[in-house]
């Protein structure tokens, strides 16, 4: 296996002589196998190996056992070792994430910080062919693009994955032939996570009933799709130069782009949306098609998209612009209007309304604390039982204030807007979620402490302002 992995690393130029490589060492079979292979490849490939372990503090004594195992393994072979401890459960609560998401984010932050501190040029992760297959199936079932089917890449930035040329079975056989021990994570046997369900049921069925090399074939397809994606991205670079013009918070596409193949049109539109949004997440094929269809519509037609982006049909152009949620110019003089926010009677019941051309969606949920609460720039959650006079969506009035501390400290809305450097000419157009004069949420800016969800929350009111205007911050 060592020569197979070496050839794979050389094919994708994973390391350069003189570099320091930081391995994420969990203590599981995959990372232990990669540890031994990289340790033996240090001299022939000219790099030096370091290892880092993240204790998530989730599995009690088992987590401590894994950390000790990883440290002892590195000590035995004289490999520099770094141990980090992260309170993942606490992080999940504070950031309203699942423990799985919080753990992944914590690892990424630790790996990046440790690599910087120890001057490691590359970060090595132990993903293998079965991981690629599981990820492909997961993304394919949920809906994805070519890039999503090739998301576990051999090299992405400073992250390398030397084991993508081998499968889980080969890794276990290699460890057994070396008489090497490793740690088993008890949570890997549970089906609570979607990925585990695919690992335990879907992939074994494909391997046993369809083809024993199902995972290897999917991994190879992923590499083929990666080459396809890279080629299409190169074509997109050329088309952007030919058809796109950048302006402040906007990109203008010339009509001539509609003469290109539909696939390339979608790639250009996606590139523009990524540039304006700063991310790709939540940009679906439906969004891309809705923009592409504007080329066939009359001047003035528009569509609202994620992250506060609007696409508008112009004369021989298509303008995509990032905007906020506020009253439109012609509506500003009508400040003072308000719309009551109804609290749905049943759980997961959804109500919809509109305020100043902005669609509003309200959903009542049973308390999800401390599980993930979906909150983004234009989606917030509130405690239903803390509503006093009744929530309304409106613009500002004299006497409005925010509670800015958990103990009840107040700030005048006017002072907050000044401190937040909101332009004076925009303040009367900012949408507010209010309970009497108490402002719960300055939409698109800050939420107050009023109505905040906590451990004692029984019912959660989730409010989204503006379909397609989601932006994480």
From TrEMBL:
Task: Return the InterPro entries for the record.
Answer: Lysidine-tRNA-synth_C, Rossmann-like_a/b/a_fold, TilS/TtcA_N, tRNA_Ile_lys_synt, tRNA_Ile_lys_synt_N
User: Which segments constitute the Lysidine-tRNA(Ile) synthetase C-terminal domain?
Assistant: 391-463
Q: Which UniProt keywords apply?
A: ATP-binding, Cytoplasm, Ligase, Nucleotide-binding, tRNA processing
A GO biological-process term:
tRNA modification
**A single GO molecular function term of this UniProt record:** ATP binding
GO CC annotation? cytoplasm
Entry binding sites for ATP: 26-31
Q: Which reaction does it catalyse?
A: cytidine(34) in tRNA(Ile2) + L-lysine + ATP = lysidine(34) in tRNA(Ile2) + AMP + diphosphate + H(+)
Q: List the EC numbers from the record.
A: 6.3.4.19
Q: Where's it found, cell-wise?
A: Cytoplasm
* Family of the protein in this entry: Belongs to the tRNA(Ile)-lysidine synthase family.
- Record function comment: Ligates lysine onto the cytidine present at position 34 of the AUA codon-specific tRNA(Ile) that contains the anticodon CAU, in an ATP-dependent manner. Cytidine is converted to lysidine, thus changing the amino acid specificity of the tRNA from methionine to isoleucine.
- Domain-level remarks: The N-terminal region contains the highly conserved SGGXDS motif, predicted to be a P-loop motif involved in ATP binding.
Q: What is this protein called?
A: tRNA(Ile)-lysidine synthase
Taxonomic source organism = Fusicatenibacter saccharivorans
């Amino acid at each position: 296996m060592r020569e197979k992995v070496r050839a794979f690393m050389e094919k994708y130029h994973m390391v350069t002589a003189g570099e320091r490589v930081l391995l994420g060492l969990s203590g599981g079979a995959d990372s232990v196998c990669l540890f031994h292979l990289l340790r033996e490849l240090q001299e022939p490939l000219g790099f030096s190996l370091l290892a880092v372990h993240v204790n998530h503090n989730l599995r009690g004594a088992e987590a401590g056992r894994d950390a000790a195992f990883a440290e002892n393994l590195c000590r035995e072979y004289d490999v520099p070792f770094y141990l980090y401890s992260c309170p993942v459960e606490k992080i999940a609560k504070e950031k309203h994430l699942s423990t799985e998401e919080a753990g992944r984010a914590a690892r990424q932050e630790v790996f990046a910080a440790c690599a910087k501190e120890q001057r490691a040029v590359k970060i090595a992760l132990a993903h293998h062919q079965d991981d690629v297959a599981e990820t492909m199936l997961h993304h394919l079932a949920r809906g994805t693009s070519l890039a999503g089917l090739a998301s576990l890449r051999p090299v992405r930035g400073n992250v390398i994955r030397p084991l993508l040329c081998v499968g889980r079975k080969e890794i276990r056989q290699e460890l057994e032939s070396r008489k090497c021990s490793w740690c088993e994570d008890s949570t890997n046997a549970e089906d609570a996570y979607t990925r585990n369900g695919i690992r335990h049921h879907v992939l074994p069925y494909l391997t046993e009933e369809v083809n024993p090399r199902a995972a290897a074939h999917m991994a190879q397809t992923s590499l083929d799709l990666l080459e396809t994606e890279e080629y299409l991205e190169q074509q997109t670079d050329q088309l952007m130069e030919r058809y796109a013009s950048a302006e402040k918070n906007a990109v203008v596409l010339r009509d001539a782009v509609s003469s290109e193949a539909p696939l390339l049109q979608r790639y250009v539109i996606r590139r523009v949306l990524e540039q304006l949004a700063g991310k790709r997440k939540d940009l679906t094929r439906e969004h891309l098609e809705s923009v592409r269809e504007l080329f066939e519509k009359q001047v003035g037609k528009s569509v609202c998209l994620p992250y506060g982006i609007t696409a508008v049909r112009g004369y021989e152009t298509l303008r995509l612009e990032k905007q906020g949620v506020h009253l439109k110019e012609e509506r500003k003089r009508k400040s003072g209007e308000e719309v009551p926010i109804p609290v749905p009677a049943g759980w997961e019941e959804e109500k919809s309304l509109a305020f100043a051309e902005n669609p509003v969606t309200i959903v009542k949920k049973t308390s999800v604390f401390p599980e993930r609460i979906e909150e983004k720039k234009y989606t917030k959650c509130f405690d239903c039982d803390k509503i006093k006079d009744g929530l309304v969506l409106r613009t500002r009035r004299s006497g409005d204030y925010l509670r800015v501390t958990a103990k009840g400290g107040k700030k005048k809305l006017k002072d907050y807007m000044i401190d937040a450097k909101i332009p004076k000419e925009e303040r009367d157009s900012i949408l507010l979620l209010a309970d009497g004069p108490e402002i719960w949420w300055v939409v698109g800016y800050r939420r107050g402490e009023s109505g905040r969800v906590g451990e004692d929350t029984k019912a959660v009111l989730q409010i989204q302002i503006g379909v397609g205007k989601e932006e994480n911050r």
